[in-house]
Amino acid sequence: MSEFNNIIQPEKAVRFELQYLPCLEYFACILSNDLIWIDIEEKYVKQTYRNRCSVLTTNKVDTLTVPVQGYSQNTPTKDIKIDHSQHWIRRHWGCFKSAYGKSPYYEFYADELQAVYLKKPEFLVDLNYELLTICLRLLGIRKDIRYNLSVPQEENKGIIDALSSINDKKNKNLNKYYQPIAYYQTFGNDFVSNLSIVDLLFNMGSEARSILLRSCKQQ
Predict the structure, then answer these.
(1) pLDDT tens-digit profile of 145-179?
(2) Residue 32: closest CA among 4, 54, 59
(3) Is 71 exposed, middle or buried (0-12, 13-18, 19+ CB in 10 A)?
C-alpha cells in the first residue's frame, strides 16, 4: 500500500474511455488516481485506441485494429459491435505469437488472454472490459474503477476529464502521466516506450507492476 501512497493524492479522480489492450500511460493514469470512471456511454471516436493497440514486432511497431461494424454519428461506445466477418482474431494472435512467442512470460499469460477472443464477444466494450480486467489482476492493481454509463452529477466536481487524451499523438497532454522506464524487449536494440500492456507483461512478467509504478509521473 505504501507504494501507491507515494504517487497519488487523496480523492483524485479521472474519467476516460475503455481502450483495447491499453498502452502503459493508460495504466500509469490509473495508478496516479484514486477513483477511475471508465465511461462507456461517451461517443465512439474512430481511429483511436478504443479499438487498436501497438506492439513491437521483428521489424517495426505494428498497430492491431479490432474491426467494428458500421455505426451512425454520435453512437455511444457501448453500442459498437465487433465485425467478426473479418479474420482479425487470427491476425492479432498471429502477431502476438510472432512478436512475443519467445518472450519470457508469453506462456504464462497467453492462454488466459486468448480465451477472451475465442468467446468472440459481440460488443467492443465487452472485449476491452474482459482484457482490461485480466491485465489489472496480473499487474496487481487494485483501484476504485467504475464502468459507468454517465458520471452522476454530484460526482462531476473535481474529476479530470481525460477522454481521448491518452496515447493521442495529436494531443498536447501526451505522456502527462507516463515517463518511460526502459525494460527488456524481445526485438531491437533501441527501447520503444508506451506500447500495449501486453509488451510489458509478456517480457517482464511479475516485474511489470514495479516498472509501471516507477513510470508514473508525479502529479
Answers:
(1) 998 755 555 555 678 888 888 865 655 556 788 99
(2) 4
(3) middle
